[in-house]
Amino acid sequence: MRRGVYKTVQALEQDIRDWIVAWNTDPEPYVWTNSADETLERLASYLNRIPDSED
Questions:
Q1: Which helix (H) or strand (E) holds 30?
Q2: The whole model's pTM is what?
């Protein structure tokens, strides 16, 4: 799926569904590389740069 090009929404949806089936066949846990505090700090910094993000 990485950097795929899709001519229709249905083609994208099918690729996503195929990926889900493959992932669920042999799932791997997600390993977080940042602490929750680091993630929240980055999110807050990002939101401060977006106009009207406080609404």
A1: none
A2: 0.50
